[in-house]
Amino acid sequence: MSLYIKHIPAIHLCCLPGLTWAPLNALSLRYTVAAFHHPLSTGPDHMMNLITVPTSTGGAVGGWRHPDAWRDTVMNLDHMISCAKTAERGKFDCVFFADGNGVRDISNPVLFEALRDRAVSFEPVTLLAALAQHTQDIGLVATVTTTYEEPYTVARKFGSLDHLSKGRAGWNIVTTARPGDARNFGRDKHMPREERYPRADEFLDVVKGLWDSWASDAFVQNRETGQYLDSTRVHTLNHEGRYLKVKGPLNVSRLPQGYPVMFSAGQSELGREQAAKHADCLFAITPSKEDGIALMEDVKGRLSKYGRSPEAFKIIPGSGVFVGRTAEEADEYHEC
Ligand SMILES: Cc1cc2nc3c(=O)[nH]c(=O)nc-3n(C[C@H](O)[C@H](O)[C@H](O)COP(=O)(O)O)c2cc1C
């Protein structure tokens, strides 16, 4: 059977009705994000990367009631393993788990009861450590905030994940979108953007410095000489900056990838600059293709300032996906 897949910007996604194509249904797809190596090219080397965002209950508001949907999706590891394995079988590049540190919409009972999977979720790096043991190839990307975490623990978490997954870790760097999360971290108010991004910049320098603590050949493990590690192959960071003070070194050996694949999702001026300086990929949800192209040109234009080439950076537009046997059927799903 040939399938027609219609992509729409994810911002327009409000329902994913009657989707019964098994793999997508099993993925509980909220939206798919895709990056093109050459976004304006249609040549034969055109290559698409696919990343999916598994959620407990998918993108359709009533989707969890569908007869084919999983019956229990609350903190259900088996469900998440099934999603990750389906995505891997379908040759997706990554699974990505967005995240925040708070219960969403609790002050609005109607939304709170209706919006299904938002109330509780696995801490994503922990979840990915589990998924790593049930998958072999797929990339494992988690959101972690630089605003309410400490760089040493973040460096350690992603370092461990990269080892546990044999080099498949990815970090979606955010400064926290939901202001209410601040109240879970000793603050009455969210840190303003003008502070969040400079802190994130320093945080990222520290985290990278910590990942560079150990040379890849530091652990010699020489049974003949009795030398387990070479102390000249580790260095202390001794960072003291405006926001952070971190001595180091990191108590995780050099990551299989060196650094995890770094994603960024900020769209503001400060967010774009952070992406250009630190990230490998930018998640971009724009209302139109033209806006998407303008964003791409803007961020790619900033790369040279940091000695980076546009080819080394990907823009990842979000898409809602409607699958039908024909274009008309996909259109029909989109319209209803
Ligand atoms: C695809 C995508 C995924 C995002 N995931 C998260 C997330 O998991 N957690 C979060 O706090 N913010 C997330 N955001 C929000 C961004 O981090 C950012 O706050 C937002 O795009 C506004 O940009 P600004 O911070 O530059 O103003 C996401 C944004 C996009 C486009």
UniProtKB/TrEMBL annotation:
Q: Which sites bind FMN?
A: 99, 143, 197, 268
Q: Name one Pfam family in it.
A: Bac_luciferase
Stretches assigned to the Luciferase-like domain: 66-334
Q: Where is the signal peptide?
A: none
UniProtKB keywords = Flavoprotein, FMN, Monooxygenase, Oxidoreductase
The cross-references to SUPFAM superfamilies, in alphabetical order and at most eight, read:
Bacterial luciferase-like
GO molecular function term, any single one: monooxygenase activity
* Annotated family: Belongs to the NtaA/SnaA/DszA monooxygenase family.
Q: What is this protein called?
A: LLM class flavin-dependent oxidoreductase
